[in-house]
Design a protein that fits this description.
By secondary structure, the protein is of the alpha+beta class. The protein has one domain: Zincin-like (2-Layer Sandwich), CATH 3.30.2010. Helices cover 43% and strands 23% of the residues. It contains 3 helices and 4 strands. Strands 1-2-4-3 form a 4-stranded mixed beta sheet, with helices on one face. A hairpin with a 2-residue loop joins strand 1 and strand 2.
Amino acid sequence: MKSVKIGHLEVPVRYEQLDAAMGIFHLYPNPAIAIDKKVQKTNMEFQVILHESIHAIDRLYKIGLKEKQVCVLKQTLTSLIRDNPKLIVALKK
């Protein structure tokens, strides 16, 4: 995945070697999501991108989520998307 659109921003997704995390959202100097190369093309890639996208939404819109809340949203949104494919089709219209 090259980028995710969050609001009016196109946030690039970069794959690089990360030492302490599977993914990181950077707001400055330019918004970007960095994903550890080890999760690229694995079943974890989508979840890490979703997790970091939730961090991006939190920071860009100044929501103030705690890490536990980000984790719960990631897990429940993953299930929502996986278990309701018609929802995604309907949202694309």
